[in-house]
Amino acid sequence: MFDSLWFYLEPLLGFALLVGIGLVLRATKVVKSEASQPLNNIITYVALPAFVFNAIYGAEFTFDLLKVVATGWIILPVLLLLAWLLSRLLKLSKALTGATMLCVAFANSGYIGYPLTLAIFGANAMPTSVFYDIFVTVISLVLVGIPLAAYYGSSGGRRFNPLLELLRMPAVWGLVLAVVLRGFVLPEVLANVIDMLAATTAPLIMLSVGLSLSPRKVVGNLRLILGIGIIRLLIAPLLAFVVSLLLLGSGLTQQIVTFEASMPVVMLGLVLSQRYKLDTPFVATMIFISICLSAITLPALQLLLF
Description:
Elements: H1 2-27, H2 36-56, H3 64-90, H4 94-105, H5 113-121, H6 126-152, H7 162-167, H8 170-180, H9 188-199, H10 201-212, H11 222-248, H12 252-261, H13 268-275, H14 280-305
Helix pairs in contact: 1-5, 1-10, 1-14, 2-8, 2-9, 2-10, 3-4, 3-6, 3-11, 3-12, 4-6, 4-11, 4-14, 5-6, 6-12, 6-13, 11-12, 11-14
C-alpha cells in the first residue's frame, strides 16, 4: 500500500519542491515576480511544443483516442455549470468569477499531466495524454476559456477569432509537425535538442508558479478554495470515470483519461488571467494549492477506482 502511494506522490513532491524554489527566489529578491512572464513565454513557445512533438512522433493512433476526446467534452459543460453555481453562491466579483470558471473547468493535463503520466504509466500512455490535452484542454481553452475570460475580464478591445487563437498555440504546431514528420527519421542532433527542450517543461513551469504565488489570496477565500478543490480534484475525475467507462470500457485507456481529468488547475489559466485581467494572483495561488491537494487526491482516486 505504501509503495503504491509513494509511486504517485514522488513526482508531485518533486514539483512542490520546484515551486518552493521559485518562492524562495522571489522572497529573497534574487528573481522578481515579473520574471514569470518571460519564463511562461519560454515554456509556451519552446519547451511545451517540444514535449508534444516527442509524445506524438512515432506514436500509434487508435479509434479509442476519439472516445478519449469525447469524454473530456462531455464533462466540460457540467464543470462550467458547477463553477457558475459556486460563484453565484459565494457572490464573487466578475473578475473572480472568471478566475473560478478557469480553475474549475480546465485541468493541467499538459504541464503536470504529461510528466506525471510518463512517470506513472510509461511512454505508451503518452499519445492518450497528449490527445486529451490538445483536443480537450487546449482546444476548449481556446473555444470556451478565452471567450469566458474576455467576458468576465477585459479583452482590451481585441476581437476574438477562435481559429487564429488556436493557430497561435505553439503546442498545436508541435502536434502538427509530429504528425507530418512521422514517416521521416530526424537527424540525431535535432532529436537530441528536442529531447533536451522537452525535459525543461515541468521544472520551468513549477518555478513560474512559485514566482507568481500570492499566499495572501488564501485568507478570505477559504470557502472558494475548498469548493474549487472539491470540483476540480474529486467531481471532475469521477465524472470522467463514469463517462469513459461507458465509452471505453475498463482498461488502461480509461484509467489514463480519469487520471488526466484528476489533474490540478490548468497552468494556461494563469496566462489567460493575465491577458484578460482576471484575478491573476488568485489563479496562481489556486494552481499551487491544487497541486498540493492533488498529492492526496490523485493516489487516493487511483487506488479506490482502479
